[in-house]
Amino acid sequence: MFAKAFRVKSNTAIKGSDRRKLRADVTAVFPTLGTDQVSELVPGKEELNIVKLYAHRGDAVTVYVSGGNPILFELEKNLYPTDLMLPGLVVPPAGLPQVQKGDLCAIALVGNRRSGDKSSPPSIAPLALDPPDLSEEKGSVQADTTLQGDMRRLTLEGEEEEGEVQQRCGEKSLSEATEDPSVGTLNPDPTDSKTLQEQMDELLQRCFLCALKYRVKKADLPLLTSTLLGSHMFSCCPEGRQLDIKKSSYKKLSKFLQHMQQEQIIQVQELSKGVESIVAVDWKHPRITSFVIPEPSPTSQTIQEGSREQPYHPPDIKSLYCVPASMTLLFQESGHKKGSILEGSEVRTIVINYAKKNDLVDADNKNLVKLDPILCDCILEKGEQHTVMKLPWDSLLNRCLEKLQPAYQVTFPGQEPIVKKGKICPIDITLAQRASNKKVTVVRNLEAYGLDPCSVATILQQRCQASTTVTPAPGTKDILQVQIQGNQIHHLGRLLLEEYRLPRKHIQGLEKAPKPGKKK
């Protein structure tokens, strides 16, 4: 189902009533789970999101995401748990369980019955069974004919080829993975044995030291702590990884910087009320002088290369013009009809050729064009048809363009041009007021420029250190909007203009960014 790209419709935080209903549904579908297990699966207070998406075949799927990890997905009103999928299938000594077609089944690691994200699998005691000797099997399954027949019937929906299940978003197929010696090794990298929090602590310190050693200069001081994070530390994050302070043991940037100050690496002061800045850095500190950017392990490098997203390139947007019924007489001589799409240069050439062909250029003043009945009907207002006999070239051409209907062409790199009538909607940035007089930044129409709202929301969540949500834009069917807590137009403008290199004329609302010195 997720072997090919899917489309996210919405990503919203779950309501309290929906959380309780989900917990009740899980209890009903999986009656063997105890209360504590259900509470662990559907936590009471931790962040839990509902992601509604469409699979590549059009299936509507609801995914429940906890802490950034999918834990359950719902298809056709049936709940399914997510599982860690690895190549190879081993038959336990007791044989395969008795299952019927349509029963819920899960695939787990040998010696580990837990599920989760792409991080290191958690440790859990294996089932009380004598594990088979896998040293000689190397991923193949040695079973009798009956068991092999049973296994062939346990295929995933929609997959006809035996043993050829592909993982989502460009990950390795089973055939490729079995040839990779790193697959099947639970700890190919020493960091895999560390918890997610410990890994995030290491990443946080790495980005901090990298920023101080390679990016921050003495002339930059005093440096706002928010600028250190947004403009320097995030840029030092290795490709394929995301820096999220909330997932570290420090939870807040201020607490982390206090720890760094205790180590006498930096000195932090509150130069203005509520705003902290770094006022001094000990660049001779052993932790800075000894820091080197670690080389990625071959395994992690392979994973990053396989899952790396293509860099965003802005589309080429060109203004076009559509011939309306009222101007077909002017353009039919050049072979165009109602609905024809033209560029501005083509319109100019057609009008000039029409005037010269019909001897409309004024003999006494070459800068003036005489208006024949067709030109009068096409470009003049009703009150002008008996008073305006001639027009300058520039006025004639401008009036022609104004009378034509607007259209535009969007060309994304490596794709065929897309032509649409009307004007392209700009990326719309607005400020809205929410409960308790809190401001939120709302941005719409990202999809028209090839931007994924969910990806933009994730980037802004990290850089602004603020909560973000993706919801359907009011009054629309297929347009999503990103909402960020606080006035974040400054961060949003930098992302769109400097990193995505979108033209300013296609973005409206940038003037609402907070002025320097004012509270956001």
Automatic annotation (TrEMBL):
Give the GO terms filed under biological process for this record: formation of translation preinitiation complex
Domain named SUI1: residues: 427-500
Q: Which SUPFAM superfamilies match?
A: eIF1-like, SWIB/MDM2 domain
Top-level division of the source organism's lineage = Eukaryota
Q: Where is this region: Disordered?
A: 113-192
Report if keyword Protein biosynthesis is assigned. Answer: yes
Q: Which UniProt keywords apply?
A: Cytoplasm, Initiation factor, Protein biosynthesis
User: Record's InterPro entries?
Assistant: EIF2D (IPR039757), eIF2D_N (IPR048247), eIF2D_SUI1 (IPR039759), Pre-PUA (IPR041366), PUA_eIF2d-like (IPR048248), SUI1 (IPR001950), SUI1_dom_sf (IPR036877), SWIB_eIF2D (IPR058886)
Protein name from the UniProt record: Eukaryotic translation initiation factor 2D isoform X6
Q: Which organism is it from?
A: Tursiops truncatus
Could you read off the lineage of the organism from its UniProt record? Eukaryota, Metazoa, Chordata, Craniata, Vertebrata
